[in-house]
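Why do we care about 3D structure at all? Because function follows from shape, and shape follows, mostly, from sequence. That is the central idea of this module. The next example makes it concrete: a single protein chain, its amino acid sequence, and then its structure expressed as tokens.
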Amino acid sequence: MVIPLAAGSIYLEGTNGDLSDDYLNPTSLVFMPGINTVSGGLDGGAMDLDLFSFTLLSGQTLTEIKVMEFTGGASGSLFAMQLGTQLSSDPVQATINMSFPDPIANVLISSTMAASDFDILPNLVVGPPFNFANPLPAGDYVVWLNETG
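And the structure:
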């Protein structure tokens, strides 16, 4: 299911439904020019996956990803992103085996980042698959959010 979001709109799991747990079928969101907000919860612990994909259309770029609010474990939560419309491998198995799908960019998000509206995009693009592409160009992207413990 594709869920279009107008600029300035918010996707809330409590209102719009749980983000997908299926790595082959993440929740598909359409971001419009402007600020787009996605809000979810990982109340189920390490096995509560939140997966969504989005497309940047021709001429669009993604200039920042800010952690605006965070309540979670002291070790933080995983924010990972990959090219495409689905993850290249099962994140449950990756969590169990401690091996990420490749290539995937990831960063641990925390309450410290949220306190300063921290932009995580520069941390995500330092290696494969984005190789310092900042801002991110038009294309398909998939995001994996997961509690770390």
